[in-house]
Automatic annotation (TrEMBL):
This is Response regulator transcription factor. Transmembrane segments: none annotated. The lineage of its organism: Bacteria, Pseudomonadati, Bacteroidota, Flavobacteriia, Flavobacteriales. The keyword Plastid does not apply. The modification 4-aspartylphosphate is found at D62. It comes from Chryseobacterium panacisoli. Gene3D superfamilies: 3.40.50.2300, LytTr DNA-binding domain. It comes from the Bacteria. GO terms for molecular function: DNA binding; phosphorelay response regulator activity. Keywords: Phosphoprotein, Plasmid. Residues 11-122 form the Response regulatory domain. Residues 140-234 form the HTH LytTR-type domain.
Length: 234
């Protein structure tokens, strides 16, 4: 940890098995006073350890890691931080959409391109920091640009994730915000809401029909993800 973490706003780790690439990233990170590098490692096992020790906001992730590859590592993380992929290959963008990758840095990484990726990350983080202000447990305020939207929790049917956006479907209308579904999941009362799929959070009280694989809410049939079935208590 750095001696003065108060001056650093966002914690990050580097997961990179090429020493030179890791050094370049570390050098770039050190130029930004809002980034706090809390660890670097060369494989997914050590990366998992770092994530268990530190509250991490951002991972710089090489895809070609020894033993466990980058995307396989990401799939195993529940509610992963933001991820900026570092790779020497072009062909992973489509697969990354499923995992909400913030940006791709193609090696060798130019500093200006690094700055662009960090700008995207900070935009998302700053939006998140202001997005969820829970003043009481029966509603939330979500900041969208310069306006605040008040959403009554009991009005929510379900929340749907679409890449880097979420749609909150309520009794009156649907609201779209740019944020990961994991962030709003953290803010919702688990007695009222539950995650049933990587792309869906539902209101328990709004369930009309349920089975092992499908839950129906407001006439909409939503899939139950295989990884969520063991934890699903409705």
């Amino acid at each position: 940890m750095t001696p003065n973490p108060a001056s650093k706003k966002y914690s990050c780790i580097i997961v990179e098995d090429e020493p030179i690439a890791a050094e370049i990233l570390e050098s770039f990170i050190s130029r930004d006073q809002e980034l706090n590098l809390v660890g670097k490692c060369a494989d997914a096992v050590y990366a998992s350890s770092l994530l268990s020790i530190h509250q991490v906001d951002l991972i710089f992730l090489d895809l070609h890691l020894p033993v466990v590859k980058g995307f396989d590592f990401l799939r195993k993380i529940k509610n992963p931080p933001f991820v900026i992929v570092t790779t020497a290959y072009h062909e992973y963008a489509v697969e990354g959409y499923e995992l909400d990758i913030t940006d791709y840095l193609l090696k060798p990484i130019p500093y200006e391109r690094f700055l662009t990726a960090i700008g995207k990350f900070k935009h998302l983080m700053e939006a998140e920091d202001a997005l969820l202000e829970i003043s009481e447990r029966d509603y939330i305020f979500i900041n969208s640009g310069k306006k605040q939207v008040k959403i009554i929790l009991h009005d929510i049917f379900y929340i749907e994730s679409l890449r880097e956006y979420i749609n909150i479907h309520t009794k009156t209308e649907s609201f779209t915000f740019k944020m990961p579904i994991s962030k709003i999941e953290e803010a919702l009362n688990p007695k009222m809401f539950t995650r049933i799929h990587k792309s869906y959070i539902i209101s328990k009280s709004k369930i009309e029909v349920k089975s092992a694989n499908i839950i129906q809410i407001n006439g909409k049939k939503l899939p139950v993800g295989r990884t969520y079935k063991p934890f699903l208590e409705l």
